[in-house]
Amino acid sequence: MKELNQRELEEKLARVIDKMMHLGDPDNSKDLESGGEAKGFFRRDFGIREWDWPQGVGLYGLLKVRKLQNRDEYRDFLYSWFKENMEKGLPSKNINTTAPLLTLVELNDEFGDETFEKLCVDWADWLMECLPRTKEGGFQHVTSANGDLQGVRLNENEMWIDTIFMAVLFLNKMGQKYKRTDWISESIHQVLLHIKYLCDNHTGLFYHGWTFRERNNFGGVFWCRGNSWFTLGIPEFVEMFDGNMDAGVKAFILDAYRAQVEQLVKLQAEDGLWHTVLDDADSYTEVSGSAAIAAGILKGIRKGILDDKYMPHAIRAVQGILNNIDDDGTVRNVSGGTGMGYNKEHYKNILIAPMAYGQSLTVLALVESMS
Fold it and tell me: Which spans in the chain are helix H?
């Protein structure tokens, strides 16, 4: 088995981080815009300065590197990012705009900033009391309206797999930090509910979403990045309990995680990545979802959740990711924002462009490979 080159990992990690911290619109953004939302064009998804989920995932990646390397410039960047956005005015509260707070909770352990703390506590209360719910109390996947900072899309009675990473991790982290059993219990409830309705019992893979209106999984598509939110999120979720999670609940959640990973490695492409539609070899291999899957598998191995037999698959994935990093640190072959699709073609036709989450998920995979 070929081992990863540590010097290459360190050099490319530094380049990817630098690019992420200075990421703006791609040079061909005008051409991309012509495809519209159907092709995955959402203006907010480009660059690092907006307050939404792509940037939130990016901040979390930077926080991980900050912990690994203890670099003050990363801490200062994160602090300034939150301060500047709060001064400018925050967007509407929804599932996706919750994502940056996952970083802020932990970052504020260093600063003890009362405005940061109040924002996090108020937002957790909002998730509990004000966020629209589906039947059975699921977190409705409310998202930002395209081009409207204060607008939302309700996606009524819909649950999406993205919610676990974007909002549930934050609520659990807040519950653990403030010893709020109601927040912790609700985070567990959401994970279990998403497994119940989004996990395919035949394969262990996850559908993008579930609608209680029609009681189906929309197009029934196994989307790579959608699945990766579960692969990446579950080891993070379980780790937050610091060994104090109910044994039965923990076993149920980790069984779902292991079953998913077992199927994922069977679908790994020759280049080490995963296809944007996991079970469709005609769809392109996509780096952001592959990076999150790699990071989730590596963390699972490191935490003793997964067997070491999965390590060769993780190494192949990381090598495939390294092959998609340009000399200036740009991560290539990242799919754009992806709304709910009713067929495989929807996912296969999404645009490809540099994205903040492509940079950050790559950071998470490289950091895990160095841990």
Answer: 6-21, 29-33, 53-69, 72-88, 99-111, 114-129, 163, 169-178, 181-198, 224-239, 247-266, 287-302, 311-322, 344-348, 356-370
